[in-house]
Structure formats: C-alpha cells, structure tokens
Amino acid sequence: MTSGLVDRHISFLEALRAAGMSVSLAEDLDAVAALGAVDWDRRETVRAAYAATLVKKQSQRATFDALFDVYFPRMVGDGAAGQRDDADRVVDNAQALAAFRDQLVDALAEGDRQAMLDLAAEMVARFGAMPGRGPGLSSWSAYTALQRVSPQELVDRIAQALLGEGRLEDARVEARRRIGELTGLVEADARRRIAEEKGPEHVANVALRPSIDRIDFTAARKADLDEMRREIYPLARRLATRLTQEHHAKRSGPLDFRRTVRASISTGGVPLVTHHRPKRPHRTELVVLCDVSGSVANFAQFTLLLVYALRDQFEKVRAFTFIDHVHEVTSHFRPGADPGDVLAGLAASTAHAALWGRTNYGRALAKFEESYADALGPRSSLLILGDARSNYSDLHLDVLRRLAGSAKHSWWLNPEHRRHWDTGDSAASKYGEIVPMVECRNLTQLGEFVHDIL
Amino acid sequence: MPQPSTWFSSPDDAATRLAGSGYLADPATAITAYLAGVLEKPLLVEGPAGVGKTELAKAVACVTGAELVRLQCYEGLDEARALYEWNYKKQLLRIQASGDQSWEETHDDIFTDEFLLTRPLLTAIRRDEPTVLLIDEVDKTDVEVEGLLLEVLSDFQVTIPELGTVAAVRRPFVVLTSNATRELSEAVKRRCLYLHLDYPDAEREREIVTSQVPDLEERTARMLVEVVHRLRDLDLKKAPSIAESVDWARTLVALEIRDLDPTTIDDTLGVLLKHHSDREKAMKELRFAG
Hints:
The structure holds two protein chains of two kinds.
Chain A: H1 5-18, H2 25-37, H3 43-54, H4 61-71, H5 79-84, H6 94-110, H7 113-127, E1 129-130, E2 139-140, H8 142-149, H9 155-162, H10 168-198, H11 200-206, H12 222-249, E3 252-255, H13 257-264, E4 276-278, E5 285-291, H14 297-309, E6 316-322, E7 326-328, H15 339-349, H16 361-372, E8 380-385, H17 397-406, E9 409-414, H18 428-434, E10 437-439, H19 443-453
Parallel strand pairs in A: 5-6, 5-8, 8-9, 9-10
Antiparallel strand pairs in A: 1-2, 3-4, 6-7
Helix pairs in contact in A: 1-4, 2-3, 4-10, 6-7, 6-9, 7-8, 7-10, 8-10, 9-10, 10-11, 12-14, 12-19, 16-17
Chain B: H1 11-20, H2 27-39, E1 43-46, H3 53-64, E2 67-72, H4 79-82, E3 84-86, H5 88-97, H6 103-110, E4 116-118, H7 120-126, E5 131-136, H8 143-155, E6 157-160, E7 164-167, E8 173-178, H9 186-190, E9 193-196, H10 202-212, H11 218-233, H12 242-254, H13 262-268, H14 276-285
Parallel strand pairs in B: 1-8, 1-9, 2-5, 5-8
Antiparallel strand pairs in B: 3-4, 6-7
C-alpha cells in the first residue's frame, strides 16, 4: 500500500471525525468496499459512494462536501485550462477585470455549471492570489477575489440577460441565487488551492463552518439566521412527535380489569394480554420572560418561535419581553399565524419593552412582579431568557426569589458560553443560584432543553 | 464479491432500469441503490414527505422482478407484528385436544412451524425468491423496535428461542424510509447505507411530472414546475411535494387548464398547499392579488 490512496482515505476520515462526524470503523470498511464496487472515472460517483457509507445525517452533508472537495480536489492548480494559456496574457489590470466581468455575466446568464466552475477557479487564480515571500507562504483569498470582481454589482446585468418573458423581479431573484452559487464555488476553490499549498489538514481545521444546528445564536450571520428560522418548524415538529411518542410509551396507567377479562375470553379465559387505562396527560402553563435587547435579540426570537410552535404541548403560554420595562407579547402569537409576521410584530413591539433602553434585569423583574404577578401560579413554569448582563444595576434578587417561589418550576436560559458567565457585568451565577441556569447557544441545545422540560 | 450482484450490474444500469419503470433517479440515487445491491446492505432513505422514498423501493422490486414485502411502521409496533408470533389460540386448542398425551410431547408439538405466524421481517428472510423488504416510516416506531431490527439488518437472521436461529436463504434488498421526525439510533444508521432524497431540480421534476401525466402539455408543465419551485423557496409550514405537483398536474389536465394565470392558480392551489397560512403567504408572495 504505497500508492498514498489509503493514507488519503484515512486522513479524510480523520478530518471528518475532527469536524464532529462520528465515523465508525465499520463504516470505514463499508466505504472501502463501496469504493471497490464503483468505477473511479467520475468524481461524483466516488463522492456518492463515500456519502452513502459515511454521512448518516443530512445536516452533516455540507461539512462532508467541503472536506471531500479539499481531500479529493476537482483539479490541481489551474488544471488543464491554466496550462493552455499563453504566458504574455495580462493577468490582472482594470481592462482584464472588465473583460472578466463580461465573461462572468455571460456564464451566469447561461447558467452553465461547468463554465461557472471554471470561472470561479480563474477568478481565484487571477484576483485572489496573495503572493508570499517564499514557497509555501503564498496564499489565496476568496474574500479578495470577491471584493475585486464584486459579482453583486452584476445582478442587474444578469437579470437583464435572463429577462425573457418573465418579470424583472423574478429575474433578479434568480440572478442573486446564481451569484450566491458562484460565491460558494469561489470559496470552495480558494479552499482547494490553500489545501494544495499547505496540506488538507490545515484547511480542515480553519476554513470550515459548523453545521447550522451548532452555530451560536450570538455569532450567526444574517444568512445563517434565515436558515435557522427555517429550521424552527421542522425542529418543533420533530420535538412534538418525539414527545407524543414518549408520553404514549409511559402511558400505561392502572389495570383495566374489565377489558382484560373480556379480551381473555377469546383465549379460553387465560388473560394473555393485559389492558390498561390511559394516563391523564398533564400540561404545564408556561410563562416566558425574555430579554430583547440587541445583544441577545436573536436568541430571544428563536426561543419564542420555538415555544410558539410547540404551544399545543402546553396548557397556556404567556410571553413577556423586557429591556428595562416589561411588555406582554402573548397577543402576537395567534394560532396559524405566519412566523415571519409574528417576528415582525415582535420587532415592532420591542419599543414598548424599553424606557431608557439600557438593559436592567432588576427593574424589569420588579415591574413584572408589580404588574403581572397573577401570571405565575402553582401550575405554571417560569422560563427566563437572557444573558444576565444588567449594566451593574440593582439585581433585585429577592424579587426573583419570590417569583421562582410562586412558580412550579423555573429555568434561566443563557445564550452565552459558560466560560463568559460572570465576566464584566454578567450576574449569571448570582441569578443562577436562585433559578437553575442552562447554557443554550445553538439550536441543538435549545431543542434538547425544550424536550427535557416537557 | 465472488459473483456479480443479482440486483444491478452498474450505477448506469440501475438508473436506466429504474427509469424504465417510471422512476427517474438522479445519479446519487442510482449509485446508492447499486451499492445497496452489491454490498448487500440495507438502504436508509431519508427526506421530506412525498419525494418518492417508498416509490424507490417499489421501483426496485418492479424492475428486478422481486416481490415486495412491506412492514409499515407505526407507534406501538412490536415484535409480534414485525417478526413473528406464536398462534396462541391454535396452541391452546392443541393442548386441550391432546388429552392424556404427556406434556413433553405436547410441548415439542406446539412449538413447530405449524403454529408460527410469520410477520413481514421473518417472511422476507425465509423467502428463497428475490425479495425487496420495505420498512416504511421507521422513525414512527418506538426506540425498542430499532433494537429488534438490528439482528435482521446486520446478519439477516432472526432468533426464535423455541426454534433456533433462522438465517436468510437469500439476502433481501432492504429499504428503510424515514421522514426524520426522530433521529434514528447510531446502531441502526451504522448498519445502513444512507441516502437523502430531496426535492429534485426543475428539469428533473418536469420530466417526472410529464412522465406521470403524459397528457400535460410541455409548456404548462414548465410553468407548473416553476410555480412549485418558487413555492418551495418560501418559508412554508409544508412545502409542496413531488406527489402534490403530480396531483396538481392531473387537476390541470382534468379541468383542461392550459394557462397558469393568477385566477387558475388561486382556484387550484388547494391541491398543493394544505395550510391556510401557507396559502395566504403564497398568494401574497407570488403577488397574485386577484
């Protein structure tokens, strides 16, 4: 085994494991068997064989694809296309840039994937090179290439080219989608080149983003937030199904004597199967109190949306938002309303939650006790969402103690990493002594928490 | 592999033959189906509802001339419904009829094939003809049932305490489908090949729709697929599935609609979208105010 193929295979698997995918030895062997069964003349075949044997969760597919591209690159260097070029061609000046952008518009309007791949590679080669001082020190930057060529400015030109019989708005949407695709290709090509220069392990460690359910709420980009929002409903559906199943599994109540005896008649009076009375399900009333100040607004939105999507599982849900003042937002959660509208409504009502606009947990808690103390009762659970950063103001710990005392259960969800608790103005452990505080940074943790409290 | 696979001879072969039965598989699906046949491993197919997961199993059975044995999973499915069950009533009758026969003899008598009711998993394993075993919606079952599947999926055998181990005469082509409402256990996943089916691209969807509804005009099909794709891009509670776009195509043919204008879309959108809020949102986003 000196071909290096086995080494490459094993280091690819190592990289997948490092990226958080659990690849077992059995799956490793399956992958080798699968590779033995297919032809290697097409890259996509190899990719599909690997994917079928190694990737068992769709959320890991993006990670897998990125690593596959790094370990089994589409081509080396500039590929066959690069060698054809004559040496005296100008690589990078204003005129070359303009010509390249024309080419790009044509290719994107055409929608030819191969052309887009080639152009993405060329774009990184010509406009994204970062020459180094010695061999192994040069690098490639997708960011520089994208800044130089700035395909975003080409939307209108592509849209014009696409504009057949459809409307201009549709053409623009399509143009933006294709540019997004190109951006992805450019980033992938830069990763490929860096991997070639510095070894794939280097790229696998730094250039990959975690899958969407592991991205921190506080560190998410706008595109990530949109994707997360789309994940909320599937997540709620999964949770609801799981909960129903688990409740049903635990359902067997006391023996139903009558049904058992009746059923036993068909087996000659031997009670082979026992029947049980159904258990009465108990449902909690949930009171959500959430910080909507800028730093944690995203987190609050997601949690509220998830709670809202799961409202069938609760007897009643009341939601309040605060910054330094409390405002009830329960009315925004109409049954059957579109989540987009709900979020817009919530954003618009944020103003009611602030008096001066500086987060003040103590004041908000006191106001809550003053105005809405009746919301909490022996059947209700209190859920507080926030980073416990109160701008060094009075924490009103006694108020929180009274609130927690009047509710059946209470929890505090903190979107910050545990290592940031108690730094700066964070009062995490002070509040955490009264109300159990749980770290909740991403969708996975959020889903787990909601599942556990139900 | 000592002998060539009995299922498909190559990925291309899989694609062509599946297409022959009206199932238009994309390259990844064809390769994975081929691998499932060659490696004799179960195939776990995941994806949203209505993208043709169950159809894939049916198509494989159809083109390879195998019989389809189907186990529909549901909550509360147990061993007795999935694997095998002793026919208690018949056994009781046998015991009562035995008269003064000694217990040992009766005991040996009542645990024989005659009193065994085979359920889908055991049936599939004992068949000596080619068999496609479809375990449908495996995520609907309880976690315990997954444990029960493990022996079948990895060794293709079933252990019946009274009879011993029944090993497969001929390994079936196993397809498990899941809507991913629940994460399946690592143990099950490890034993399977995995395929995620997603909504197809516009070109493939148009081919699927026209192959299922041949009466539909080319131009209408293109418009239909375009609308469906735009709907899927929206944030809907339930995105329209392939099955639903085929239904929509049938509706349009039945109503003899050739042009998709705002009014006709509004009239027939109920075929695609089953939530009121989705429908409102779709009309708003597609800007069909009328």
